[in-house]
Amino acid sequence: MLCVYIRHISPSIHHLSLMGSMSNKSEIRLLGTTASPYVNRVQFALNLKSIEYEYVQEDLKAGKSELLLTSNPVHKKVPVLLHADKPPICESQIIVEYLDEIRPDLYQLLPSLSLDRANSRFWATYIDTKFFPLYEELRRTTKKAGQDAIKEEMIDATQLLEEAFIKSSNGKAYFGGDRVGYLDVILGCFLRWIKHVDELNDFNTFDEVRVPELAKWANNIWSHEALESVAPGKETLVYFFGLIHVYRPPYQ
Length: 252
Prior knowledge:
Layout: E1 4-8, E2 28-32, H1 37-48, E3 53-57, H2 66-71, E4 80-83, E5 89-90, H3 92-102, H4 114-131, H5 133-140, H6 144-169, H7 182-188, H8 191-200, H9 212-222, H10 225-228, H11 234-247
Parallel strand pairs: 2-3
Antiparallel strand pairs: 1-3, 2-4, 4-5
């Protein structure tokens, strides 16, 4: 299968110059699919750091490419980051942290204090393993009683995230304070998918009455230029949502 290679030049968010091993844009390649929030997460981080990279579009409907299968033989999934002649780096959280470690001078994402970094990683794991999977369960659940139960779990989860946001943001616009940080990248990449599932299920995840601070955060992050330039549009979401329905159909 042929991969489509797209040269992606990330916007200069803070007009930072690239130095050292990052100066050659061909040294960074990202294997991904347009609608994957996990791929968007890595793109978000790359854009924040103004790192130029080459985007390799995987057409998963046609079949996974040999490059993907050899780069990620364990999970066989995107995203995968290829950095020069180094071994491939897989899993979006790991990739984001890798980028932060090799270039902390280009827009540091993780907090500087060890305890704060540990807390950020805790909530990132919660978001990926407990919070966002609820939307897949809701998509696959057809009976109203089951859907209502999942929505109650969503409400509980967003209230926990509201408390985490208040503690992390210190009254500022983002989890990272005055500017986008690690948890903003982790959770922000899911916003388009969350809104799409909400609309299909007559639900509002970031309700302004129930979680007012998260609702304001969602509005801020939704239009952030580093995310807006890579987040999937409505048409793309509908298309990929249909594919997911075929490969992982609703429960009978």
